[in-house]
Amino acid sequence: MRILGIETSCDETAASVVTRDEGGKPQLLSNVVLSQIDEHSQFGGVVPEIAARAHLSAMDYIIKQALAQADTDLSQIDGIGVTSGPGLVGGLMVGLMTTKALSASRNIPYLGINHLEGHALTARLTDDVAYPYLLLLVSGGHSQIIRVDGLGNYLRLATTIDDAVGEAFDKTAKLLGLGFPGGPNVEKAAWTGDQNRFKFPMPLRGQDTLNMSFSGLKTAIRTQAQKLVPLQEQDIADLCASMQKTVAEILANRCERAMAQFCDIDTLVVAGGVASNSEIRQRLESLCMQNSYKLIAPPLKLCTDNAAMIAWAALERFEQGERSDMDLAPRSRWPLDNATQSVMGSGRKGVKV
Ligand code: KG4
Ligand code: ZN
Known about the structure:
By secondary structure, the protein is of the alpha/beta class. It folds into 2 domains: 3-122 and 303-318, ATPase, nucleotide binding domain (Nucleotidyltransferase, domain 5), CATH 3.30.420.40; 131-301, ATPase, nucleotide binding domain (Nucleotidyltransferase, domain 5, 2-Layer Sandwich), CATH 3.30.420. The protein is built from 11 helices and 10 strands. The chain has helices at residues 37-41, 48-69, 89-106, 115-127, 165-175, 182-190, 215-228, 233-259, 278-290, 300-303, 308-319; strands spanning 3-7, 12-20, 26-35, 79-85, 110-114, 133-138, 143-150, 153-159, 267-271, 294-296. It has a 5-stranded mixed β-sheet with strand order 3-2-1-4-5, sandwiched between helices. Strands 8-7-6-9-10 form a 5-stranded mixed β-sheet, with helices on both faces. Helix 2 runs parallel beside helix 3, helix 5 packs parallel to helix 7 and helix 7 (215-228) packs antiparallel against helix 8 (233-259). Bound molecules: 5'-O-[(R)-(carboxyoxy)(hydroxy)phosphoryl]adenosine (KG4) and zinc ion (ZN). The site of zinc ion has 5 residues, from helix 4.
């Protein structure tokens, strides 16, 4: 099967083509991502209406690019996977309506895909990882630890009780005047910083829960920054490095406790935009070494939002004979694990201004 993927849930317009080779190994044929950073940066966060309009004007071109780079055309596409939630509804509608139009006019089956499932299965596209595995999903809207037992079989073990970890990076960057998007800018500033200069709190540590909390970290950074005004470049670097180290420590601590719960798993997969942070990757790498685990961290361009992960999740579902109806509607909220109760305030998609 040759699958076209489409992603428009937040501020990246993306299209991609994936397939399997003759031996059944996953193959990424193209991966085109257009970021809307310039459109949103002056507002310090993603503005939903601007995002939807930008998706609309870029959509056709991005799909054509993805098909061209894969050296294919619509007549050779066997199915389309499109993100139908969770996310900003205006953007989701652009992707979904485009997909329905292509599906109806070209008679190609399509599937609405959960964006989080895309992140969750990326490691199967890049590294052919077998089920079951532990997943640390850390993005702008989510911070979760999930046991992945199979396609559609997800057990949420932990979530944030307030901000998502990506939000913590974005808010720290905003506070320190580093601009949007925050994560990469905090990481860059941290390169020249002293990660031991400030000691920030690690909420919930030691308590009988795997859940995480990041809103106190943001407050602690603000309080520390206010004491240092006027902030020198070195202060900012030190604050970023200390913040990054604290986040890496919190994540590693929670993953270690999750690992201890199972003896039938030996793989930790990290996914989502924050998974591109090298300090966090290194901390998880050493955690896995200590616990005889394998760490699978997808390449950076497949950690942040992309359509390859959506195409891949769709391919796995098409292989099971699934397809969506024309009356499918976008969903702003759509937990991966429906059975586990949701936690109030557990992250959100997009930083609405
Ligand atoms: O997965 P993603 O691209 O979009 C969502 O589904 O949310 O994640 C975006 C988030 C943003 O909060 C961004 O600041 C963060 O990932 N991020 C990073 C890095 N690159 C992106 N956080 C820390 N370090 C990075 N290098
Ligand atoms: Zn994402």
